[in-house]
Amino acid sequence: MFIVIEGIDGTGKTTQAKRLAEHLTSQGKTVILSHEPTDGPWGTLLRNSASTGRLSPEQELETFLKDRRQHVTEKIAPALAAGHTVILDRYYFSTMAYQGARGFDPQEIRRKNEAFAPVPDLLLIMDLDVDTAISRIGVRGDTANEFEQRANLARCREIFLSLKDEPFAKVIPTDSDPDEVSRKILEALPA
User: Residue 32: which H helix or E strand, with range?
Assistant: First the structure.
């Protein structure tokens, strides 16, 4: 099974991805937990640009595509082919949202990605109002970077929620405690 966890910054994606991986591992499944941007050269460039100055919109989008192609080729596709469960903390839906907020057409971004990147079996959209998300970013000790500004996050949230009617998507409200969110995620898993 291929599960992607998405949502704006501050919704608890990383915490819930780890919890889900632990739960499925405890059930005897081989789980590959990964994230995007990756720790590879393209992903490192992207992460560093969040604090050192963003790339141009075109360079940023192209770098996300290069990072994802490498991720699919080297990690995601082999793990799925081996019958493992893959859980991703961010995927091309984040590119649709964050680069969509920079002016690119989210559907065109999706088309470019789905030309080489497998569609997940389950997309969990972690949802939280922007003001609460921003307050959580501050509580975790981070300073909001350019990706995490209010107007940008509001547009990104809109794009994520536009995916809610996809047959493989489930919106998970994250305004409750982490244990309750984990319970909702487990309920969303296919039987």
Answer: strand 31-35
